[in-house]
Amino acid sequence: MRAVLDYCTGGTERKVPAGMLFIHEGGKTGHLFVLVEGRVEVIKGDSVVAVITEPGAMFGEMSVLLDQPHSATVRAASDSVIYEFNDAASFLRDQPAVALLIARLLAQRLNVATTYLADLMHQYAGHGTHLAMVGEVLQSMINLPPSQVQPGSDRQSDPRM
Known about the structure:
This protein has 4 helices and 8 strands; from the N terminus they run ββββββαββααα. The strands form 2 sheets. It has a 4-stranded antiparallel beta sheet. Strands 2-7-4-5 form a 4-stranded antiparallel beta sheet, with no helix packed on it. By secondary structure, the protein is of the alpha+beta class.
């Protein structure tokens, strides 16, 4: 994800002290954040689900793309430097290469999650436990209805962004 840093010239560079939260689960900012240096923790509920140190790692992308509140809290685990894009939707429209990098990242995450769920489904099929319902979860993920997509022009902003 270091390649993302090449496109971050329009972002605001922020120094984030250790312990500071810069994304709050359930909040909605429309901002995109890119790690320049340091270490951050992704927290879902009360659990740290990831510790990220890779420069170019992005945070807030799912909230922006889905136009939904943030799905997790992000906290600086050490003094860190980030780029912040206040109007992430405009940034992504202006930088399609970054949007493509995000699409690849999200596809990788989906592939890992689907592979894991399929493995669980195979291991626990027919056992009659709560893990046997993994097949239902997979099926519901596969059959999600697509979002309504309407192409626009450069002069007309996309109301979803």
